[in-house]
Amino acid sequence: MEIIAGMQGGFHSVLTLEAESIQGRELWPLSLTATISGSPVGNSSTTISWECNEQTARWERRDIWLFWTEDPLELGGQQVEVSARLSHPDVGEAVTVDARFLLSYRPQ
Fold first, then answer.
1. Does residue 102 surpass a pLDDT of 70?
2. Cβ atoms of residues 79 and 102 within 8 Å
3. Which terminus of the chain is more solvent-facing, meaning fewer CB atoms within 10 Å of its CB: N or C?
4. Percent of the chain that is helix, strand, coil (3-state, to 5)
5. Residue 21 predicted with pLDDT over 80
6. Residue range 29-46: average pLDDT?
7. Per-residue pLDDT averaged across 63-78, rounded?
8. How far is the C-alpha of 22 from the C-alpha of 52, rounded, in Å?
């Protein structure tokens, strides 16, 4: 996962989420948390809507930003665990998905 230097001085990564089955086009609250060895290093909270990718027959949301709270020079080359927590807009039931990524940062 690449760490990107933002124009206003912060750092972020861009994620895409996919789902096999989504009912409706409601807005879903999403919370992202990034940790390394259990210590928080990034987060994001937003509301997303899903779009159907007709080529893959999956629902997806592109361009989700995860903001880093730690120095990217210290994060580069480490493995990060990202936890995505989605809440169903109608019933409030939440699902959490975890993924691991190797971080990459190249200062410009």
1. yes
2. yes
3. C
4. 5, 60, 35
5. no
6. 95
7. 93
8. 9
